[in-house]
Amino acid sequence: MYPQGLFGLNPFQLWLPISTIVFTTLIVTLLRRENQPLWPLLLLQLSIGIVALLGAKLFSLAVRNWQLYPNIIDELANGWRYPGIVIAFVLLGPVVKKMLVPQLSLFRYADVVAITAAFLMASFRVSCFMAGCCTGAISQSWLALAYAPASQVWHRHLQHGLVQDTNSWTQPVFPLHLLLMAASLSVGIFLVKFDRHRQYDGQVFLLYLISHETLKAILESFRTPFISSLQSTSLTIAAMGAIMLLIIARTKYATNNPPSLSMPMRPKPRPKKLQQQGGFTLIELVSVIVLLGTLSATAVPKYLSISENAHDATATTTSSALKTAVDHLHLLWLIRGEEAVVIVKGDNIAMNSGGWPGPPGTATPTAAQCVTIWDQSLETDQSVSATADGADWLATGPSAGLCRYQYQRDGGGNYLFEYDLASGAVEYNPPPPAPGC
User: Is the per-residue pLDDT at 299 higher than 90?
Assistant: First the structure.
């Protein structure tokens, strides 16, 4: 892994021009075989590339609630989302194509773009591997990989106290990006073979939407932190592709088999070609299955989204409650003459010199002391422990003057807040938005 990049370029900056060149070369080569002009094709690809990047950036901003990264370098290095590319291409691609290469069939162009897009996404996952993004949860599987300092998963682990120091590698995590790469590559190979047997222009593009987006939606379930909008978008795109494929198939069947109001004296034998078109093809049946699976799977991201909101609400409410409690104890400390101990309901609560519950603000508290602060300050049914023994919260003393409380019910400790013994501040740190890949 090379999270710092190569030749002074970060992984995204390094791989974007390589992927763009490969993508453009494949499309132009395929369309030149159909006697399309070279320079208009190159201009078309340049314009489509700009549209795609714009769509990827806007979709990424929408996922992040329109919050920009701290500086423009980080925004350009990260903040890109693949579903935005598909949406932008579907909405603006036909307009750009008609302006630049009007003689080219829109649906045939979509087929060629679909084939090359699958290989493009497979190659672009190399930058995800280099940067350490698009990963899953901590895992002990033989597939799991540890990532170097400065990688994106390393920053997440550092924030949550999962790495020992700034020189340590991450905990082993599930390499989701490698599975996404394999899925895109498999779809690309399938579409190349199917393209020779397509029944009409546009069929390959619809199959790309169904197969690629269904696989991506399934794999998105393994992303950490999980982003429900990415999965639901892929599911929606796959469903729309399946619906369009079925509508076209039935329309073509109805055209070849028009209804008749007359009463024939004797049924005539149907031509062999029409007999073969009497029902759904294998591709159409597979599309029905995919559509049903897609519709049923929409309940999964809905449930996971509700779970995420519940975890976030629990962490927010608990951190606010602790802040209110320590402020109340600080006020009692001032009223009672800044004594070293404040008695509340028979409990002797030790106060430091700054008037906040706990040891001195310059000392590093033990996990047991952080548990005591919680128990004496809060009136809650939620449990806390110094060890990961099934309690709701895990208390640690990560550094001087800080008590950290990590929520355990989300399965990954992604929700945490910290209590500053020197100032009495309680800061909630929600999971950061996952960087785009």
Answer: no
Q: Quote the percentage of the chain above a pLDDT of 90.
A: 10
Task: Quote the crossing angle between the two packed helices 203-219 and 228-256, to the nearest 10°.
Answer: 150
| Rounded alpha-carbon distances, angstroms, from residue 433 to 13, 63, 86, 161, 293 | 21, 8, 21, 17, 28
In Å, how far from its chain's centre is CA 317?
Answer: 26
- Each residue of 405-414: b (16+ CB within 10 Å) or e? bbbbbbebbb
| SS3 of residue 192 by DSSP | helix
φ/ψ (deg, to 5) at 60:
-65, -45
pLDDT reported for residue 94: 85
Mean pLDDT of 345-369: 86
Q: Where are the domains of the chain?
A: 11-136+175-256+276-297, 313-429
Total number of residues shown for the chain: 437
CA distance 341 to 348: 6
Q: What is the spatial distance between Cα 216 and Cα 224, in angstroms, rounded to a whole number?
A: 14
Q: What is the DSSP letter of 432?
A: P
Query: Measured at the alpha carbon of residue 154, what is the angle toward residues 149 and 156, in degrees to the nearest 5?
Result: 150
Q: Which residues pair with 290 in a beta bridge?
A: none
**Other beta carbons within 10 Å of 159:** 14
pLDDT tens profile 142-177: 888 888 887 778 877 776 667 777 788 888 888 888
Scored b (16 or more CB within 10 A) or e, 136-147 reads bbbbeeeebbbb
Strands of the sheet containing 426-429, edge to edge, are 384-385, 393-396, 402-407, 416-420, 426-429
